[in-house]
Amino acid sequence: MRSSNPSQTQVKGRDAAIQITCNSEGITAQTLDGVTYYTTTRRGVEYTAYVLGGQWFVASHRATLGPRHVGGGRYYQDLDALANGCKAFAALPVFLSLATR
User: What is the Cα–Cα distance from 88 to 82, expressed in whole angstroms?
Assistant: First the structure.
């Protein structure tokens, strides 16, 4: 895949589609007390997703507003709704499928 920006590295295949679609930093996972938290940053906003009460909850926080900014959050019915409704986690289904291999 060729990039119109010469400063970007060339990425091939599925990774390129994920990177272009998501336009976010990598997704990281951390498990605390049996709950797995997925975090990423997109366009200056830090996102954390996890399952709460059978639904996905995404907390968001604008990094430039500092640690005292409470942020917001939203519930999603399932993983597909999360991937379609929150661009920062559009690659989460792929991330989870790779983790289970």
Answer: 9
> Tokens 């990177």 label which residue?
19
The answer to whether 18 touches 3, Cβ cutoff 8 Å, is: no
pLDDT, one tens digit per residue, over 13-48 is 444 344 434 455 788 889 999 999 999 999 889 999
Whole-number Cα distances in Å, 9 to 12, 14, 16, 17, 41: 10, 15, 10, 14, 20
CA-CA-CA-CA torsion sign (93, 58, 29, 21)? positive
Determine if the pTM surpasses 0.85. no
The arrangement of strands across the sheet holding 28-32 comes to 28-32, 35-42, 45-52, 55-62, 72-76
Question: Which regions of 26-101 does DSSP assign to beta strands (E)?
Answer: 28-32, 35-42, 45-52, 55-62, 72-76
| pLDDT bucket at 86, cuts 50 / 70 / 90 | very high
